[in-house]
Write a structure and sequence with these properties.
Low-confidence stretches: 17-97
Strand content: 15-25%
CATH class of the largest domain: Alpha Beta
Helix content: 25-40%
Number of strands: 14
Oligomer: single chain
Largest sheet: 14 strands, mixed
Number of helices: 13
Distance between the termini: 78 Å
Radius of gyration: 26 Å
Mean pLDDT: 81
Number of domains: 2
Structural class: alpha+beta
CATH topology of the largest domain: Aminopeptidase
Length: 453
């Protein structure tokens, strides 16, 4: 055979083998970013064709596995029947010491985590991190068997928890109630280093992970990047932040913090309200027996607003209404629930459902009776509860939700949030990422219209 013909055939064989290995070898093209804040990082660069062809497609003893059209691997094990499975992670342990990872699939298994859960939640102070919130989420929004609670360590020495659920028919992992309530959540951890065993275990599931709204400064982002380095991608996008007020003693007169025009509007609203009748406000911390009637009254006030006509009030949205009742009862038992009303005469004109924890006042739900819209009862009630929080010596007033025109009356401060996609193979993440972009745009539009608050 002529030398030229041999070279042509050899090149054709090389190209065929390269194409075969492209789908056999679990590689990922390098992702470049000029700014690490964009959320992309370099991962597993593809080797030159000459290097790939001169070495085996897989290390000795490892069988190459095709990724094309493959279903996500099943991460379950026989131990899961008892509520979780045990894994072991050596990444953050001393020599000879391993950190067990337990995955809770059933709601019944949550009770065993409650004490350790709230101990870790105390580091953040957020009610969305507490066991009461996740338990109400699991009872309301999560089907049996869809929980995926990853915990590092064994009770009572649990050092990190990733509270996740399966969505999309089990095709991805998400934070619970992120879609239904759209409040910022995060993993729980004793310190940043304790996250590594959990994020390593998540990377081994080979499932995409979507964290719709977490704090932009969360160490979870860095831990996921380290766990997926060399075998996946972690992509961050900014999403709507949460407005808040940094309180001090000067906030006992909230109107003094407003510009002259807003102070004039507030005084005028108060005068109009007093024409309807005597104006009073109350911030209640009910006992469990009294919370039911108070929630009924709060739901009636919200139903009398424009939310009632649009069908988005809690009294109309039975699923979210059931969640709020369950969580309110649990928060009431812990002594952190606050039910707030602005009353004009004998009628409740505006309401707030809030919790007081971690030295902050957290505003969960708001509503007002449309019959009193001329006097802005919701604005008047915010003024009263900001004063209450300042007089209590709290150091923060958390509006939650998103930054909106009515919150900018009081503050321009916002807790920055991001959405995080973590995926072991980039091409598998592209389709759900595109869906998430559309979903986030639609969700923001709904929130700006007031749907969901």
């Amino acid at each position: 055979m002529a030398p030229l013909e041999r070279r042509v055939r050899a090149r054709r064989a090389d190209r065929r083998e390269a194409r075969t290995m492209r789908w056999s070898e679990p590689f990922l093209p390098r992702v470049f970013s000029s700014d690490r804040a964009s959320g992309c990082f370099p991962v597993s660069p593809r080797r030159p064709a000459a290097d790939r062809l001169s070495s085996p497609a897989s290390p000795p003893g490892l069988k190459a596995q095709s990724l094309r059209g493959a279903a996500p691997p099943d991460v379950s094990s026989p131990v899961e029947k008892s509520g979780g499975y045990a894994d072991r992670d050596e990444s953050c342990s001393r020599p000879g010491e391993a950190i067990p990872i337990t995955v809770t699939r059933e709601r019944a298994g949550l009770a065993g985590l409650s004490a350790a859960w709230d101990e870790l939640a105390a580091h953040s102070g957020s009610p969305m991190q507490q066991y009461a919130w996740i338990h109400a989420c699991a009872d309301t929004f999560v089907q049996e068997g869809d929980l995926s609670i990853f915990a590092a360590g064994t009770a009572p020495r649990i050092t990190a928890i990733a509270p996740l659920i399966r969505r999309g028919g089990g095709a991805r992992l998400e934070l619970p109630a992120a879609d239904e309530m759209y409040e910022p959540m995060d993993f729980l951890y004793a310190d940043a280093a304790s996250l590594a065993p959990v994020t390593n275990a998540l990377a081994r599931t080979k499932l995409p992970i979507l964290l719709r709204r977490i704090p932009a400064e969360s160490p979870v982002i860095g831990a996921l990047r380290r766990s997926y380095r060399g075998g996946g991608a972690v992509i961050c996008r900014p999403v709507a932040g949460c407005p808040w007020i940094a309180l001090d003693s000067t906030w006992v007169r909230p109107e003094d913090k407003l510009n002259p025009g807003r102070r004039s509007d507030l005084r005028r609203a108060r005068r109009i309200a007093e024409r309807f009748g005597p104006v009073s406000s109350e911030v209640l911390s009910p006992d469990p027996k009294a919370v039911g009637p108070l929630l009924d009254e709060a739901f009636r006030v919200e139903l009398a607003s424009w939310k009632g006509s649009q069908g988005t009030a809690l009294a109309s949205d039975t699923t979210r209404g059931r969640f709020c009742r369950r969580y309110a009862v649990a928060a009431c038992e812990r002594g952190i629930l606050r039910v707030c009303f602005l009353r004009i005469g004998e009628r409740a004109a505006a309401m707030q459902l809030a919790v007081e924890c971690g030295g902050r006042f957290w505003l969960l739900k708001i509503g007002y009776d449309q019959a009193f819209h001329r006097c802005s009862p919701g604005l008047l009630l915010v003024r009263e509860t900001v004063q209450y929080a300042a007089e209590r010596g709290l150091h923060g007033y958390e509006f939650l939700g998103i930054d909106e025109p009515w919150t900018r009356i009081w503050t321009r401060e916002v807790h920055r949030c991001v959405s995080v996609w973590a995926c072991p193979v980039l091409w598998r993440a592209l389709a759900p990422l595109g869906f998430d972009l559309v979903h986030q745009a639609w969700r923001r539009l709904r929130l700006e219209m007031g749907i969901g608050r």
